From TrEMBL:
A Pfam family this chain is assigned to: Glyoxalase
PANTHER family: GB|AAF24581.1, GLYOXALASE-RELATED
Source domain of life: Eukaryota
Residue span, Glyoxalase/fosfomycin resistance/dioxygenase domain: 19-131
Disordered: region residues: 56-85
Official protein name in the record: Glyoxalase/fosfomycin resistance/dioxygenase domain-containing protein
Organism of origin: Triparma columacea
């Protein structure tokens, strides 16, 4: 059986927890399904949740860390630098308006808006420094994965 993506976990230091959660909730209109002092869950798409978790350096609050397939009792990893984290990519209706939302919610533009033949692309950094791509499809793109 192949793997199915169900959660994207964003570990952030305590001062960046609220700004990062607000950034994804307001910029991309992601429904907030859980909010505690240390964890927020946002529905990204059907079956996929973005979990923002607030942790001190070296701390691990994700319960799957100690479960089978976790680290088996090893010390939790330190925060990776933002450049080592995967970039999230969102399909958007309008790059320009979403970019303005991102900037007003604590995002920072990471390079110029690009205009390749298949659409517009912009990359921002969220308040924790993670890179987030936005793609506005232009024209009819043929699915080559099938």
């Amino acid at each position: 059986m192949s793997g199915i993506l169900t959660r994207i976990i964003l570990r952030v230091p305590p001062p960046l927890y609220a700004p990062t959660t607000t950034f994804y909730h307001k910029t991309f209109s992601l429904p907030l399904t859980l909010a505690t002092e240390t964890t927020a869950s946002l529905t990204a798409s059907e079956g996929v949740t973005i979990v923002v978790t607030c942790e001190e350096e070296g701390e691990q609050t994700d319960p799957s860390f100690a479960s089978p397939g976790g680290t088996g009792g090893l010390d939790p990893p330190a925060f990776p630098p933002p450049s080592d984290r995967p970039m999230l990519q969102f399909d958007v209706e309008c790059v320009q308006s979403t970019l303005l939302q991102a900037l007003s919610n604590g995002g920072e533009l990471d390079g110029p808006i690009k205009h390749p033949a298949h659409g517009k692309v912009a990359v921002v950094k969220d308040p924790s420094g993670g890179r987030v791509g936005m793609w506005e499809k232009i024209g009819d793109i043929r699915d080559v994965t099938g």
